[in-house]
């Protein structure tokens, strides 16, 4: 797909190495050249409305699967600058495919989601509604007009839309976006998304209402008591997380509660409705990270931010974070997941560039808009948990069905591999 409604281009993991990609000369990357896509140089894009620059780079590493050494990377990603020809509107997205046709799903969604956003005439008037329409329409299109079998395959999606000095973060699944916030002499990680898994009580209760059985693999196989509906927290869960199963079968076994695709899982509550979070940038916001759960399975958000902040060059930061994650996977599992990370630095944003934000609000870390109520909430301190996840109305959340909408394109890449069981 060509460049549409924005400054964008596409790359494919199966393309030959023609020198257009620079695989950083670290030992880890050097030893995995054929499995890595990394950007040759830092890219810069200005945001003239607020007189700052976004500097970004990416890396995607195919997973290690000893039983399937030739599996392709089911992660993909998309970076589109100047959506709708607007120099103040930019898009970053990471998609983690899963299931037999996960690679096809993530690549389909990579193209279609940003196209729909870019073709939506109401994008700048109501970005939250545009996001909802784009996610639901893409999900419907994957199912009804593509030739991809999404019954047991699909993709998660974590996306950041920059409009002027405001971030709109839309998420389905368990990949993650994280913002680095200066707090005195410290840099604090603020999650811009909340992993949608059965570990979350609200998501657990929603899918149960839709008929899902929520059990770990050991529980569904009768090795542990299925009546114990508690699995600890996500940070310390170990290797047997709660999964979703149909009432009378041992499938589909998804470890997430929202995705695009997964039509069978949709019958038990897995939905494509995104949670959207809105954050107004301030000079305290240094950079943000958008990454698949291959990064965050064994690294906390704070660890990722700390590592990214310790490198002058974000290309080196991408390599170091990917390497650390890869090594932890091999230490704790007999395989790794696919790993994809985008780092976007926010350079030159000043107090005078944040229109309508007073000094108290800047020191507080910014303004958060709740897209459900339309109200603004001012955070108390940059380190506080202020970037609240925006949830859709209860009726939407309890719905197991979706609708449709409309269509743009991006700088994108995906690399060779496969996902975990079905996550």
Automatic annotation (TrEMBL):
The keyword Hydrolase applies. Its cofactor is Mg(2+); Mn(2+). Keywords: Hydrolase, Magnesium, Manganese, Metal-binding, Protein phosphatase. Its EC number is 3.1.3.16. It catalyses: O-phospho-L-seryl-[protein] + H2O = L-seryl-[protein] + phosphate; O-phospho-L-threonyl-[protein] + H2O = L-threonyl-[protein] + phosphate. The keyword Lipoprotein does not apply. Residues 55-346 form the PPM-type phosphatase domain. GO terms for molecular function: metal ion binding; protein serine/threonine phosphatase activity. InterPro entries: PP2C (IPR015655), PP2C_BS (IPR000222), PPM-type-like_dom_sf (IPR036457), PPM-type_phosphatase-like_dom (IPR001932). SUPFAM superfamilies: PP2C-like. Pfam families: PP2C (PF00481). Gene3D superfamilies: PPM-type phosphatase domain (3.60.40.10). PROSITE patterns: PPM_1, PPM_2. Belongs to the PP2C family. This is protein-serine/threonine phosphatase.
